[in-house]
Each structure stands twice: as C-alpha cells, then as structure tokens.
TrEMBL record:
One of its GO terms (molecular function) is ATP hydrolysis activity. This is Amino acid/amide ABC transporter ATP-binding protein 1, HAAT family. It comes from Onishia taeanensis. InterPro entries: AAA+_ATPase, ABC_AA/LPS_Transport, ABC_transporter-like_ATP-bd, ABC_transporter-like_CS, BCA_ABC_TP_C, P-loop_NTPase. It comes from the Bacteria.
C-alpha cells in the first residue's frame, strides 16, 4: 500500500536517512524499530509530508505522493500521530475529537453559509462518531476533561482517537507506547489490533517497547544510523547479529527481549 523507494534525507551535513526502501503491505501492522537517532521519525515525517526527501520516492496505492503536503495526504487516507502528542490542551477531549473530521462543510464559512442545513446534519453525525470513538477507546469518563490534564497514556489514546475520526486507511504511529503505564499500554495495543482486524486499518508503527512490537507487528524493519539493516518477523530480528550490535553500540533504550 505504501512503498518507500530509496529515500534519503540530509540535514546540513548530517545524513539522517540513507537510501531506505521497504513496503507497508495493505492490512499489515508493520513495525519500525532502531536505536535513538536511527532516523525513524525522520522517515515518518517524509512519508507524512512534513518535508520532502533529499532523494527517493514515496508511493501510495501506486501513486507517487512524494512531497505532497500533509492535508493532501489526509484526504487520501494517510494520517500520523506524533512521538509527542499534539493535543489541544485547552480544549476538552470531546472537542479535540470534534475538530478532526475532514471535509466538514463547516470548515469553510462560505460553505456553511450556503449549506447550513447540511452542516447541522453533519454535526450530529460528528457527535455520534465522537461518542463511538470515546466508547471504543474506553475514555468516555474523561470526555469533558481538558486534554491538557490527561495522563501521558490517555493523550496517546486520544491521539489514536483522532485518527479514528478520519477516514484513515493508513496510519503512522510514532511511539504509541512511550511513557505509558502497563494497563493503558494493553488498551492501546488492543485498540490498534481491533482497528486493524475490524476496521481494516493498515499501520506502520515505531516503538521501543519490543514486547509491543512482537505482539503486534509482522514484518519488522530495523534502522540504525539512517540505514535499513534488517527486515523480517520479530523472532528472526531478535537473533540478528547486526541488529543486536546496533542496539548495544547505540545506547540501549529498548532491549531486544530475553526469549527468542
Ligand atoms: N529537523 C531536523 N533538523 C536537523 N536534524 C534533525 C532533524 N530531525 C532529526 N534530525 C537528526 O536526524 C537524526 C535522526 O533523528 P530521528 O528523530 O529521525 O531519530 P529516531 O530514530 O526517531 O530516534 P528516537 O528513537 O530517539 O525517536 C538525529 O541525529 C537527529 O538529531
Ligand atoms: Mg523518533
């Protein structure tokens, strides 16, 4: 569904991503791991249209989307979450979900003026969808809290909820488990799994928590120093000498897990 073709990115003299190619197959939950500074988030930023690559291409459903802006990708069903959640802290959880829907007629004053009947009808639909998302993620009890007051894990759930308000088909998740307690992590894991199996979402997910990766992802791609160094199921990745070396050499913020 997404094909990353020979993508490189330099920031001044620093080559953050070096000639990386891999595919995210439709219906998969594909993992992207690697030590801190490996270039994972940079690659996501390129795929999500934050900035173009220095060279290489991104292909979505057979169409070249390299360099297309984020809102254009959004309309094609590609959305992402950030390593640090981007919630509107002074708005409630419910309001945070309400501002997401694409192609809401109300976003354009002229449209809303001309077609106010339709706008009001859509509002009701949006509210229904918000309730459904709150329910799905089991965060209805904090619906009227200010988003800024949520715990780190609840913010990650809200982030996931925001992707559910769109007609997303391809979702990039940057560290959905970072700083999240075990209970919430289980919830996030099950939400991702259900969105994948029940709603047909395709995921590409960056994570340092190797348990989460091995429970959800197949295949897994490994980056180190900007390069793709291994790809395969997690059971194989764990055994890979180059991968182990990369984690040991780069300062271990996630370990490879004990068993194999
Ligand atoms: N906008 C930027 N300008 C300059 N350098 C950047 C920029 N974004 C990232 N880098 C550098 O590119 C390299 C890769 O960073 P990136 O954030 O992609 O790593 P990462 O794999 O996501 O790491 P982490 O696991 O810590 O999140 C790092 O050396 C980083 O300092
Ligand atoms: Mg990162």
């Amino acid at each position: 569904m997404i094909r990353i073709e020979n993508v490189s990115k330099s920031f001044g003299g620093l080559q953050a991503v070096k000639d990386v190619s891999f595919e995210v197959a439709q219906g998969s939950i594909t993992g992207l791991i690697g030590p801190n500074g490996a270039g994972k988030s940079t690659l996501f930023n390129i795929v999500a249209g934050l900035f173009p690559p220095t060279s290489g291409r991104i292909v979505l459903d057979g169409q070249d989307i390299t360099g297309l802006p984020t809102h254009e990708l959004f309309h094609r069903g590609l959305v992402r979450t950030f390593q640090i959640p981007h919630e509107f802290s002074q708005m409630t959880v419910r309001e945070n979900l309400m501002v997401v829907p694409p192609e809401q007629s109300g976003e354009n004053l002229f449209n809303s003026w001309l077609r106010w009947g339709r706008v009001r009808e859509e509002d009701t639909k949006v509210l229904e969808r918000v309730d459904e998302v709150l329910d799905f993620l089991e965060i209805s009890h904090v619906a009227d809290e200010l988003a800024g007051n949520l715990s780190g894990g609840q913010k990650k759930l809200l982030d996931l909820g925001r992707t559910m308000m769109t007609d997303a088909k391809m979702v990039l998740l940057d560290e959905p488990g970072a700083g999240v307690n075990r209970t919430l992590l289980g919830k996030i894991r099950e939400a991702i799994r259900r969105l994948n199996t029940e709603r047909g979402y395709t995921f590409c997910l960056i994570e340092h928590d190797m348990d989460l990766i091995s429970q959800l992802c197949d295949p897994v791609h490994v980056m180190a120093n900007g390069e793709l160094i291994a790809s395969g199921p997690m059971s194989e990745i764990r055994q890979n000498a180059e991968v182990r070396e990369a984690y040991l050499g780069g300062g271990v913020s996630g370990h490879m897990g004990e068993d194999a």
